[in-house]
Amino acid sequence: MAYSLSMAVVTPALPQIQDGLHTTPAGAAWALTAMTLSAAVATPVAGRLGDLYGPRRVLLAVLGVATAGMVVAALAGTVPVMLAGRVLSGIGGGVFPLAYTIIRDVVPPARTASAVGLMSSMLGLGGAVSWCLAGPIIDYLGWRWLLWLPVAGLVPGVALAWWIVPRSAPKAAAKVDWWGAALFGAWLVAALTALTEGMDWGWTSPGVLGLLALSAAAAGAWLWTENRVAEPLIDLRLMRVRGVWTANAASLLSGYALMAGGLLFPLLVQLPDGTGFGFGGTATQAALLQLPASIGMTAAGMTAGLLDRRIGSRMVLFGGALMTGLGYAFVAFQHAAMWQLYVGGLARGIGLGFAYAAVANLVVAAVPAGETGVATGINTLIRTVGASLGTQITAVVIVVVPGEGGYATGFAVSAAVMAAVLPLALLVPRRRPPGRGTGPGAVPDPVTAVR
């Protein structure tokens, strides 16, 4: 939760960071972008290192580097120092796949789904805490104290990880595909930077087109490398397993739905009431609107494991996508009163809590134990890409479609996106009897079981 808090905590403080570091809005926004890009690259790499060398030692290293980065960011007096600290902090993104690997190693199979759901719910809880605490901390203590907040959670987290997480032996003669990691990072950073800056630079600007061309070239070189090395960073055959690619596609769409709402709801609340459809609310009122949804997301993630044992994660995903889509469809037509936003937002939060927990459980169940870290890392990465798409596409929609129609269209698009998750959930392989495969719902051999 401390890491998810560090990712979310900068967003409400961006105006204060801009003033405090004497930079532009774009310079302040890079405090968030830098960490996102770093986390995108570090997440699958850390997951792979955990699979090879044992999750405990990699987790301790990742948490140590992330904590140091947060301290640097909190003390930063200039934008370059702030960005350096945020890049180091982004390495903490590896905690998610490493945690899933540890869960699979130490938790009894009957409780694995509940533990994975609880872990997934921490994303919603971190966002809820950051929005609730941001206003009072900024108003009474200053924005730097907001950056110290995750450090207060990570320091005891490192100590507890060192004390509680069991050691595990590394794989014999394990090797890391460093060329694959470098090429993977190159195409991913180029693509995400183009996606992030497209609105400011222009989608047909030389900078964006150049980054996209660089990304395509690096991606081609990466695919060529991964298909020829003995121990690739990411086994591409594994990504074609039906239980994996369906969960990854659902993660992409769910990430979109999360961040689309994260943009639409606060903006609609804070629009002047003179527009005829805005509420003229404060930042605190916008934060309070997000609170029930975040709590609902956390609670849903915690209970998803219980539902997994009864109906299976494929149906949990189906139900979560349906609830999220209905919540968005409701506010697309009914958004004239605050209670309507609360109802739609709560349905969105609960539905996404179920969906996030379900896709994590589906990936864990579909891959061999030795591939858990990298597979869940890729799933987390794809969710991040979806979130970037949700932010950018929704911003374009509310600019292109004027007035109230832009917000209604944004909500409707999000509902349609979650409707696309429904057939993906039905394509997920049904759960098999215990004792077959590598876990509940797993296929016996992910390489030969590609569908």
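(the above was protein one; protein two follows)
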Amino acid sequence: MDEVEETETLKHQEETHKRKNPKVVFWNFIWRPVYWFRMLGDELHWSFVLSVVIVYGMNQGLSVGLSRVSTQYYMKDEQKVQPSEAQVFFGMIQLPWVIKPLWGLLTDILPIIGYRRRPYFIFAGFLGVISMLSLALHKKMHLVLALLSLMTGSAGVAIADVTIDACVAQNSISHPSLAGDMQSLCGLSSSIGALVGYSLSGFLVHFVGPKGVFGVLSVPAGLVILVGMFLREPHVHNFSYRRVNQKFLDACKAMWTTLKCREVWRPCLYMYLSLAVSLNVREGMFYWYTDAKGGPSFSKEVVGSIFSVGAVGSLLGVLLYQNVLKNHPFRDILFWTQLLYGLSGMLDLILVLRINLKLGISDYFFAVIDEAVTHMIGRVKWMPLLVLSSKLCPPGIEGTFFALLMSIDNVGMLSSSWAGGLLLHVLEVTRTQFDNLWLSILIRSMFRIIPLGLLFLVPRSDPNLSILPTEMLRTKKGDDIPESDNIEMAPLVNGT
């Protein structure tokens, strides 16, 4: 017995020594992500892991980072549109995300050639490639055709997003212990992709122009086609296409029944209104950044670097919510974040009125602080709404109903973008006239405070408890609704 105890003591001392050895700790830190990826590949198959990295990291994260700056310069320099018009056009580009439930229903209940996911990846990839190449190769495309191409590219990203969400959800059900790891993989891929995309966007727009960047964006879309070719997926046998119409109708009836529930429609109304009244005048600020006389006159590279800092701020917001705020009641978090969100809008006012220069703070440094703070607060404000949305989904239609909630949010952001464009138009903020830009920023910041009066629509409950009535939680729809394996997740990066 003494020899056994002595052996165990020696092993314990050796393990302790390894843990305290700086070299061992350093190499463990370096190789840990590799081991983590290898573990996910072994458990979930390498094709799934690579698909998440491509769709979230490349097609959504990197592409959104590149496309935002390139599209802004394309509208300003190639199409010669006014800031108010650009604001409205950017809202139109997001329209394919509004009908996200349709994409979810299609991939969930309508297999093609025996596969539920792979054909939709291929279709989404072709949409992206065709739309981006048409923009890149056309010398002088009409504005209407350009908008249609950009909307088509946005549809490709949305369809791929919905489809990979379904794949993640399926694996979360079959491997529940790895659900957190898969969420981390999605978030990590999209965050890194967005950071790289924003960091490179300004340089690429400067060297190859906006249309050249559109050509580059065809590459991530092409990789989505490859995802549809190599993704491992079981073949669906003896599928009855005659029941598709009935399944659509049953799903719509189930969603309508849920929406009529008081515990559901009230938070949904708050989510829409809180987003819709937060007027978006981003394009007015962008034109002022680059074209205003007496303004900062930021270069393309500087604009890209500022947006990349915003991506870092957004990531910090996620970490702050996850580690500090996730267990606080919804109303408490939304009250303080909405208040801070309104106050953060005043940073733009300080910049436009040039108060920062009087304080001895350079335009670039202040713009970086503004972008980081605004995105961090905006992300912290957004996270409890995502958690709230997930708790409003009844059993059996979780996937499709969550997609419906996300489409409601997208309608809110669309309303915000169009209302902001109207505000810029009324105040006569143009490509060369920015005298009233400060007023639009002040009005926007005041409107951001309005949702504080609507917080009574949000449940005061603990975020770890259920919100839906008990009888609704027990409801199961059986075979009359789409499969519950399509549990949609919110897009981790904003659309193009």
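Reviewer note on protein two: The chain has a mean pLDDT of 81.
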